[in-house]
Amino acid sequence: MNAGETGMKMVVHSIAALVLLGCVAPAVMASPASTALAACMADNTTGKDRKDLARWIFSSMAIHPEIQPYSRLSDNDRVKIDKQLAAMVETLVVERCRESARLALEQDGGNAFKEAFGMLGQVAMREIMADPAVNAALGQFANYLNEDKFNSAFKK
């Protein structure tokens, strides 16, 4: 395995396993090189790129057997989404943020990509959740809470 294959595998594993975790997990302490890579990636993505990332997160989660019945994504849809993400990642890592990625990989190994893609996932999800319709939908469950139960649970 050559250095390029090793770096690519680290990027792929970081994205597949940790973008999702990065959306919900607190960031770990990163070295200056990893922080620079995360900043480069955030600075060099567009709103469309971040929507593509959020779409990929959704399509990946929709594979889960408990969620799959609620998704109408076809295999062709998933392939298209995967290709869009691959193009974005390739552009970020090997073009727009090449030097930052190289330095971060040398200093931190795969953890650099975990940090960077985790942060990018957080940014993408914040943008999606800021949409007024999404924001309203996130609060809809509260219509079904029993306020009396909450009030009695927290009475002094």
Describe how the helices and strands are arranged.
Blueprint: H1 3-24, H2 32-43, H3 47-61, H4 75-96, H5 98-108, H6 110-130, H7 132-139, H8 147-153
Helix pairs in contact: 1-6, 2-5, 2-6, 3-4, 3-6, 4-5, 5-6
The largest sheet is: none
Order of helices and strands: HHHHHHHH
Please, what is the average pLDDT?
84
What form results from the Cα inertia axes?
Answer: extended
Distance between the termini: 64 Å
> What structural category arises from helix and sheet content?
mainly alpha
Contiguous low-pLDDT stretches (5 residues minimum) are: none
Provide tags for this entry.
single chain, 156 residues, mainly alpha, 8 helices, 76% helix, 0% strand
Give a quick rundown of the structure.
The chain is mainly alpha-helical and 156 residues long. The chain has helices spanning 3-24, 32-43, 47-61, 75-96, 98-108, 110-130, 132-139, 147-153. It is extended and about 55 Å long.
Plain-language structure description:
By secondary structure, this protein is mostly helical. The protein is about 75% helix and about 0% strand. Helix 2 runs antiparallel to helix 5, helix 2 packs parallel to helix 6 and helix 5 packs across helix 6. It is extended, with a radius of gyration of 19 Å.
